[in-house]
Amino acid sequence: LKAQHVEINGVKYTTNPKICNVTDSIINLTDKALHLKESHPVGILRDLIEKKLIDKSFKTFNNFRPVVTTMENFDSLGFPKDHPGRSKSDTYYINETHLLRTHTSAHELECFQRIKNNIDGSKAGFLISADVYRRDEIDKTHYPVFHQMEGATIWERTEAKDGSKEPTHIVKIRDDIKSVEDQLKKENVKITVSDDTLPLKEDNPKQEYMTDLEVDLCSQHLKRSIELVVSEVFNKKITSMVESKSNDIPKQLKVRWINAYFPWTAPSWEIEVWWQGEWLELCGCGLIRQDVLLKAGYKPSETIGWAFGLGLDRIAMLLFEIPDIRLLWTSDERFLKQFSKGSISSFKPYSKHPGSFRDVAFWLPMDKPDVHQVHENDLMEIIRNIAGDLVESVKLVDDFTHPKTGRKSLCYRINYQSMDRNLTNAEVNALQDTVCSKLVEEYGVRLR
Ligand code: PHE
Fold first, then answer.
1. Domain edge (last residue) among 336, 367, 402
2. What CATH number does the domain containing 391 carry?
3. ipTM exceeding 0.90, yes/no
């Protein structure tokens, strides 16, 4: 029987056993706050980006708790009721109304309200860094907890006083763009942007309440601000590559903006960086939809602005050359001792312990198809809960439907491998046995 209560960050929540899918192994991660550790790769990166962006207009919020309401995480941002992100297979729920935030955007509305009510003085923007939670597969780059930094800024709209002059906010945005561009020019790494002038697509339209000029200026300010962050981060990387005499040092950085969709921004984009032969997706962003600003208490057409959400862990892995995302969560001193506040250094592997593969093959139950649907993320969760960070990856290796009976069988290959030590055969077998019996018990599968 599942517990009726869970305690997260010192607060007790009543669970709904039908909905609740947070596990002890996830709850144990809710007080790690890696983004606040100043000598941890995630914390070092957060600090680096904040320093670049922070000026008098941004207020930072780095202590928001991970439990939020469905209202904050989804409804306030205009997620449709049937949006896949809301599903139990993707999101950790405590009960109908509370969940572990899936993104830092869950705090946007609250922060806009703070600006509107002038709680933080004259700040016109904010940066929020926090841990976010998503049920997902298991491999070297996926972990159920990662970190994001949310940024947003707004301008109050004004009317032109006399017909010949531009409204004050237009003048202000032009100045703000100029100041970001000046900073960009000072960066060592030059950014080349391809496709910046892509026309807005029909499915990624401008909002009615903004003029073409406002959309143009706002998005320039947004794009240049993010490019500034990207050039800072990659500049640090390139500098450390020069120091270590690496031989594929790029001289300039290629980035591109692509169209995207988020329910609370329009138009929306993603930025991608060309790095070691592939386009890396770094950050989603867009111009804030008027609905969100209205919910925050602004009058119609009173303000315009932008928001972005940047994933920190993948960038940290790239910067510090960390090959496996589990390392970010280790308490092994051989890892932690390698990093220090404010400095970007390459991780030196201390040893690679061998992995052991085990397959689990099973027939899915036929009798109650609705009851016993095993979602892949459920399987991942079972394995994670039993073996924790001793699993390196889980891959589907066979998917077979019997031609006569229509019965379906799946086979997953689990790689058990510890970051810190050698695992014994007996230990791996015991873990594998537990995984198998749990699958039978919870999902009624038949092992093959
Ligand atoms: N929250 C989005 C994500 O997690 C990123 C985003 C933030 C997009 C702000 C637009 C504006 O993917």
1. 336
2. 3.30.70.380
3. yes
